[in-house]
């Protein structure tokens, strides 16, 4: 078996069920003769760099898999026939891959997914903490110089009166 990556762009007007059906058909072809899907990412609808079949957007799907070359040929033949597939590109990433390589590739993919999820959770927690800090700083009363001045004058007057009272008692 060989390892491949394929990116294909589907029409943006397709429903979610139609997209899933196209992906399922593709996966069925790739899984023939012991082939295995290592990772499948639906990138969703994105703006195209240039018009493809009079469309400005497309639904992107990325697939990393290990299969026989004949299955790739069959998949690409189906893509040429299927009008819902606007464009596709397949590259061979490895001449041969065994069961251990497949397991390692799946482990790498799952680790990458976990790392992304952890980074998103951390970023969300930091954003929440920043939001809480902002709320706390907004709720604290703001002390201005004008507000401090009367308190300082009152404190000075009280201290002066206390010292005068002490002097009067000692006389």
Structural summary, described in words:
With 171 residues, this protein is an alpha+beta fold. It has a domain of 96 residues: Ribosomal protein S6/Translation elongation factor EF1B (Alpha-Beta Plaits, 2-Layer Sandwich). 56% of the residues lie in helices and 29% in strands. It has 4 helices and 4 strands. The mean pLDDT is 85.
Question: Order of strands across the widest beta sheet?
Answer: 2-3-1-4
| SSE series | EHEEHEHH
CATH superfamily of one domain: Ribosomal protein S6/Translation elongation factor EF1B
Q: What's the helical proportion of residues?
A: 55-70%
CATH topology-level name of one domain: Alpha-Beta Plaits
Report how far apart the termini are. Answer: 109 Å
Largest sheet: 4 strands, antiparallel
Kindly name the structural category: alpha+beta
Number of β-strand runs: 4
* Mean model confidence by pLDDT: 85
Unreliable stretches: none
CATH architecture of one domain: 2-Layer Sandwich
Q: State the CATH class of one domain.
A: Alpha Beta
The helix count comes to 4
Strand content: 25-35%
**Integer-rounded radius of gyration:** 34 Å
Shape: elongated
């Amino acid at each position: 078996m060989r390892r491949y990556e394929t990116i294909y762009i589907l029409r943006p007007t397709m429903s979610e069920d139609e997209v899933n059906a196209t992906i399922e058909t593709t996966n069925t072809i790739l899984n023939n003769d012991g082939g295995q899907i290592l990772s499948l990412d639906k990138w969703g609808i994105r703006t195209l760099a240039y018009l493809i079949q009079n469309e400005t957007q497309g639904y992107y799907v990325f697939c990393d898999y290990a299969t026989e070359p004949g299955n790739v040929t069959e998949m690409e033949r189906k893509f040429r026939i299927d009008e819902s597939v606007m464009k596709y590109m397949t590259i061979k990433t490895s001449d041969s891959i065994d069961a251990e390589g497949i397991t390692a590739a799946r482990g790498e993919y799952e680790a990458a997914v976990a790392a992304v999820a952890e980074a998103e959770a951390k970023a969300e927690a930091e954003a929440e903490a920043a939001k809480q800090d902002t709320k706390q700083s907004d709720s604290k009363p703001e002390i201005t110089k004008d507000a401090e001045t009367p308190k300082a004058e009152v404190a000075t007057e009280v201290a002066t009166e206390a010292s005068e009272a002490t002097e009067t008692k000692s006389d």
